[in-house]
TrEMBL record:
Its cofactor is Mn(2+); Mg(2+). PROSITE patterns: IDH_IMDH (PS00470). Pathway: Amino-acid biosynthesis; L-leucine biosynthesis; L-leucine from 3-methyl-2-oxobutanoate: step 3/4. Pfam families: Iso_dh. It comes from Candidatus Gottesmanbacteria bacterium CG_4_10_14_0_8_um_filter_37_24. This is 3-isopropylmalate dehydrogenase. The gene is leuB. It is found in: Cytoplasm. GO terms for biological process: L-leucine biosynthetic process. PANTHER family: 3-ISOPROPYLMALATE DEHYDROGENASE (PTHR42979). The keyword Magnesium applies.
């Protein structure tokens, strides 16, 4: 199969981790006689520096003309520390999500047996963890208007808006997914306080009627943030709105031991985007320190979800586990407790994974 992949490495450690995913994808292409053609585009702080625009038109066009998008990460502390700046790297990603209609963001959370030791939670709490967060990605407070300052800058307004249509769309995606998994959805909202959450709950219940084999339950977001730590194995599919999903998925990643382990898929009508959930980790940029696992796994998700290449995706996932079982670790997933690990860099981790996918 021939596929065109738009590659957006972004900022910080983005280019390094993307490079490892591409190595692995090339190996898969070679092994299975596929052709992957990559075209690179700018987004985020590097795009602002070059063109003043965090999402240049060329980049959107490139994405629109591709079969899938592989994304690194964006951000730069120089923008974080200056709240007055009008142009920011993150706007690039938000605009891309909106322009391509990437309505559902899927974040799988799994704890590997060989990584039990790095979770901050007790072994018996994390033994059976295998859930996905489905986060609505183009609605809610991230995009609602008005968004402004008034009263001479002393009052700030953000607006959370959801339509029934938006909620229905992401819910149908989540129910479809749950029916192929353990048939359990926990919808997370704040319906005891927010009107958008009451519409959310009402709509999710309507969608649920079409999926009688899936068990739906509801949870308030404050309780959910506690349940994720207390009893995370109760979850199969978590369905939630944009802001809650952003926060809960970072929290969920901690259970696995490192945010460097979690990939994601942002699903659109025609094109989908795949990215690690971690940020740009600018301090580590160029130091061969970053964990490439989340990006390599994002590549595997791309093969599975956009190209229907299940065998290929599985092989990547198995290769990663083999490397970890060989006691090779990047720094973020090593503990000081034991010295039996071989701590290796980003590049070496990518090489080992590629080599493990034998011809
Ligand atoms: C994420 C990130 C983004 C978000 C930022 C970079 C805009 O935190 O993908 O989770 O808030 O959605
Ligand atoms: Mg986030």
């Amino acid at each position: 199969m021939k596929k065109y992949i738009a590659v957006l490495p972004g900022d910080g450690v983005g280019p390094e981790v993307i490079k490892q995913a591409i190595k692995v994808l090339d190996k898969i292409a070679q092994k299975f006689y596929h052709t992957f053609e990559y075209e690179y585009g700018l987004i985020g702080a590097c795009a602002i520096e070059k063109s003043g625009n965090p999402l240049p038109k060329d980049t959107i066009d490139l994405c629109r003309n591709s079969d899938a998008i592989l994304f690194g990460c964006i951000g730069d502390p120089k923008y974080d520390n200056d709240p007055k700046l009008k142009i920011r790297p993150e706007q690039g990603l938000l605009k891309l999500r909106k322009s391509l209609g990437l309505y559902a963001n899927l974040r799988p959370v799994k704890v590997y047996n060989c990584l039990f030791d790095i979770s901050p939670l007790k072994k018996n709490t994390i033994e059976n963890i295998d859930f996905v967060v489905v986060r609505e990605l183009i609605g809610g407070i991230y995009f609602g208007k008005p968004r402004l300052r008034k009263n001479y800058g002393k009052t700030a307004i953000d607006t959370s808006i959801y339509t029934k249509e938006q909620i229905t769309k992401v819910s149908e995606f989540a129910f479809g997914l749950a029916s192929k998994r353990n048939k359990k959805i926990t919808s997370i909202d704040k319906a005891n306080v927010l009107e958008t959450s009451r519409l959310w709950r009402e709509t999710v219940c309507e969608v649920a009627e079409k999926y009688p084999d899936v068990i739906l339950s509801h949870m308030f977001v404050d309780n959910a943030s506690m349940q994720l730590i207390k009893n995370p194995s109760q979850f199969d599919v978590i369905l939630t709105e944009n802001l809650f999903g952003d926060i809960l998925s970072d929290e969920a990643s901690v259970i696995t031991g490192s945010i460097g382990l979690i990939p994601s898929a942002s699903i659109g009508e025609k094109i989908s985007l795949y990215e690690p959930i971690h940020g740009a980790f600018n301090k580590a940029a160029g130091k061969n320190l970053a964990n490439p696992i989340a990006t390599i796994l994002s590549g595997a998700l791309m093969l599975r979800m956009s190209f229907n290449m299940n065998k290929e995706a599985k092989l990547i996932e198995q290769a990663l586990i083999k490397v970890l079982e060989g006691e090779y670790r990047t720094k973020d997933i090593s503990t000081n407790k034991t010295s039996s690990y071989k701590i290796i860099g980003t590049e070496e981790f990518g090489d080992l994974t590629t080599e493990t996918i034998s011809d």
